[in-house]
Amino acid sequence: MQHTSPGERTANTPPPPSTSIRGLFERVLPAFTPIRTTEAESILRELFSLADIQIGGTRPGDIQVKDQRFYERTIRGASLGFGEAYMDGWWDTDALDVTIDKVMRANLKQKVKGSWRLKALTAKAVLMNLQSKTRSGPSVEAHYDMGNDLYTRMLDERMVYTCGYWKNAKNLQEAQDDKLDLVARKVGLKPGMRVLDLGCGWGGMASWAAEKYGCSVVGVSLSKDQVALGNEMWGPKGKKLDVELKLMDYRDVRGTFDRVISIGMMEHVGPKNHRHMMEVINARLADDGVALVHTIANNRSLRHGTAWIEKYIFPNAVAPSLAQIGRAMEGLFIPEDMHNIGPDYDPTLMAWWDNFDRTYSEISHRYDRKFYLMWKFYLLAAAGAARSRDGQLYQVVMTKTGRVQPDCRKL
Known about the structure:
This protein is an alpha/beta fold. It has two domains: 17-114, no CATH class; 131-410, 3-Layer(aba) Sandwich (Rossmann fold). 46% of the residues lie in helices and 14% in strands. A seven-stranded mixed β-sheet has the order 5-4-3-6-7-9-8. It has a two-stranded antiparallel ribbon with strand order 1-2. Helix 2 packs across helix 3.
C-alpha cells in the first residue's frame, strides 16, 4: 500500500481539493519527468472546478480542450503554459474574459506555484535592475513600436492607451475624453501653464492640456513610433498645438514645470526605480505645483509581472502596489487625493478588443493568426482580471510640503 503525505495524492486516491491542489502543483511543477495525461487532466478538472469552470461545459467561460497536451502544458507552465496553449489553439472558450474573471476570483494563480520560469523571473528581478536606462528602451519598443497601424485601429481618436473614465461615458471616445479632463481638473490646469507629461504616449493628455486649457506641454516617451506620430498629429503638420513630444528617458528631463503628469508610466518603471521616479517629479515640479500619477496597481507588492505577460506583452513591466507608491512618495510629497477607477479598465479593454477584432482583417497581412490569439488573450484576460478586482487603477494627486491644498478632492 502506498502512503500519502499531507497535500499529496496518487492517481487513485484524490484528497480534499482545498489542500490537494496546491500540494500537487508544488510537487509536479518543478519536476521534469513526464506527467500522465490522465493525471494532468484530473488535476486541472479539479482545479478549474474550484472556479466553477467546466472543461467541456457549455456555459459562458467554460473551456473546450482541442489538444490533450493542454493539460500537462498548463500544469508545468502555469500562466505561461495556459496562455501559450491558447495561442497554439489547444483550448478555447466562448468568453475568455469570463474564464479569467472566474480564475482570478477563485485565486487559482496562488494555487499554481513552483514553475521554474517564475522562480527565474524572481531571481532576475532581485539581482538586476530590469528597468535601468539601458534596458528601458528595448522594453518599450517591444510593445509600443509594433506598429501604429495596430494602435490607430484599436484606440480612440486621441490615441489614449490607458484606462478610460466611464462614470458618464457611453463609448470609448467619451470615456477617454472624460479621463483626460478629470486629470486636467484634478491638477488645476490654467492657460499659460507649463506642463510636463512623463510617458506621454502619442500625446493624448498633452494635446488635451494644450487644446482645451491653453497650456504649453512637453511630453517624453521612449517609443519612436509614438513620438513620431504624436508630433505629426499635434505639431506644426497637424493641429499646431503648443505640444512638443521628445524621444527621451524620463530621467533625462530638465527644467521646472507648473504641473507634472504621468499617465501609465509607473507600471514600466519597476520597484527599484519607484523612488527615483518620484525624485524626478519632485525635481521638475515647481514648489507651488501639483503632480498626478495615474497607474495600474497590484493588490500586493511584487517584483515582476506574470510569466506570460513578461514574455509576450510587457517585458520587464510590473505594476506597483499602494504600499510601494506610498514608500516612493514618502518625505517628498503630500498625497492630496487617491482615486481608484480600477473597475473602469474592464469596459476600456472590452472596447479595445471590439475595435481590434472588428478591424483585424485590415492588418492581418502584418499580424498573423497567432498574434491575433495572443492579442485576444492579452485584452480579454486583462478585462477579466479588472472585473475580478485583481488589479486597480490609482490616480494620486501630490503636492510639496507647504502648498495650499488644491481642490482636487471635490471632483
